[in-house]
Amino acid sequence: MAFLNPVYVRTQRVVDRLFFRERLDVQHSLEQLSEVMASLLDLGRIVALIGDTVERLFHPTRQALLLADPAGHGYVVSGEEGEEVLVAADGALPRALAQVRGPVSRARLEEDPELRPVRERGLAELDRLVAELLVPVIFQQRVTAFLALGPKRSGADYTSEDLRLLRLLANQSAVALENARAYTALQAANAELKAALRRVEILESIRTNLSKFVPRTVQTLIEQAPEAPELEKREADVSVLFVDIVGYTRLSERLEPEHLNRLVERYFGSFLDEIFKRGGDVNETAGDGLMVIFQDADPRRHARAGVKCALGILRRAHEINAKLAGHGDGLEPIALHAGVNSGLATVGATKIEGMSGTRWVYTASGVVTNVAARLAALGAGDAVVVGPTTRSRLGDEFELDDLGEQRLRNVEHPVRVYRLAASTAVPTGV
Description:
Blueprint: H1 6-38, H2 43-58, E1 63-68, E2 74-77, E3 85-88, H3 92-100, E4 104-105, H4 106-111, H5 116-129, E5 133-139, E6 142-149, H6 160-210, H7 216-224, E7 234-245, H8 248-254, H9 257-277, E8 281-286, E9 289-294, H10 299-327, E10 336-354, E11 357-365, H11 367-378, E12 384-386, H12 388-394, E13 400-406, E14 415-420
């Protein structure tokens, strides 16, 4: 007869209406969450929205969203600094969630016969998480995350309707979480790529600047074997060019240091273009001169490169002299000595130690180098003086004067010397 009692009927209608309204509110909240998440790629924001929704609808004493870490080691609490793996990928709880493919409560873990194999370890993991209920987030058949919820603050149990709503929430979150994680990973990869490109730019800048000071041979050796470049000394067939300024001592005594430096920089700066164009390495510099080494698999090529470089340097000096004579900017013309010698020399790194530290240079040493320096001293003005081995490798390309055997300072035996004739000393086409 209860259904005939008007009071009971009115009361039931109110309860039904309130209950129905509450369910509508929950449904509306989940729909709103789904719409918002569909347009979000910020992982932190999505996690926060899920947490806010869970708090508003279920009021747990504690909650956490654990995401599978990219390395596949296990599950970490999203947003926590350091993101320590709390549950291993092969742990009891992930196995239970993968098996049930739905919410797993402490009570179910204790009572379900199918979960007996993981029960003991699973309960221990629940205790560590301080959780009473787990809700898996499944994407493409994988448990990619799960919610760990503590008891309700009201003390009530999670109802079957709660579990249905939580499962719906997890399903709605799966795609959004995965898209956000993919976007976050892409951003990290882009940031890493930008950092790598920046490092390349910096290294390229360093390389460009070091190329002004480091011989090309050394650069090549380092590029071929960055960790262990072959800088040890070895014997190699080379051509060595010495160039120095005639009367440099007199100029240094007569000119102010700043004026002299500007003079040397202007000339030697233009000489570097000729040296690099011919493939030479500047291995030593003094106040008034340069030592340049040329190497090639074909000895004839590096001999011709050394001579052509010497002629190019002389041509550059003539051009600058002509400009100085025409404009008179305070600098005065200079004359050069140049000598080229070819043959076997010891090349490699040499350590120079001093009070200010240790410096390594890559240079050539031996009789060939000494003779090249002495040959340069024999030059006069525009002369390019070469040794016998260099002469034999030039063929008929150049017209040379035979100056006969000459005694060179600190050289034991006489050396046959050749001089490029005045008509070819400064060719315009070399």
